[in-house]
Amino acid sequence: MCIRTVSPQDEGRLREGIARMSPRSRYLRFFSGATTPPDWVIERLLDVDGVLHLAWGAIDLSDPAQPAMGVVHAMRPDAGDRVAEFSVGVVDDYHGLGLGRLLAATLLLDTRDDALEALTAHVLYENTAAMRFIRRLGGQRVAQDGPTLEYRLDIAEALARLRQEQDPPGLADIFAHFDASDAA
């Protein structure tokens, strides 16, 4: 597996990964079961600038096509904002392997240089797996709008919680990589 920043050249991987998600997973992630989100959503997901929009993706290197395994985003409307919107999407074939934790750790570590303090996540009330994941990172439910729940996640707390975890393999390597980068 390779975890790297997302770029516009990943459009094909992104579209293919979304199409490989089950209708249920697409509904829970995009609040729609459409095979692919509208073009404007794809464009927004690929419009990564490293300031207003941070995004990291995982690619399966064991497959010659190197398909997308999952992606994580933090988006904020203004560079001065200290809170960004957080989202994670993992292709069904890779559910339950800890990929969401690996991607979240990577993104959270990346946010340290951007003066972000917290992330918000909007989750459908029926997406119990996402709610468990966010609460595992210390997220607190702060609002509800119909079937959508809003959680707030303190970045420092989430990083402290992830740093304590031993699973999945590779999590400690992500922390070591960013810690070494910070020391350099």
From TrEMBL:
Q: Which domain of life is it from?
A: Bacteria
Q: Which UniProt keywords apply?
A: Transferase
- Cite the Pfam families for this sequence: Acetyltransf_1
Sample GO molecular function, one term: acyltransferase activity, transferring groups other than amino-acyl groups
* Entry annotated with the keyword Transferase: yes
Q: Can you give the residue ranges of the N-acetyltransferase domain?
A: 1-165
Q: Which residues cross the membrane?
A: none
InterPro entries registered for this protein in UniProt: Acyl_CoA_acyltransferase (IPR016181), GNAT_dom (IPR000182)
Protein name per the record: GNAT family N-acetyltransferase
Gene source species? Erythrobacter aureus
Lineage of source species = Bacteria, Pseudomonadati, Pseudomonadota, Alphaproteobacteria, Sphingomonadales
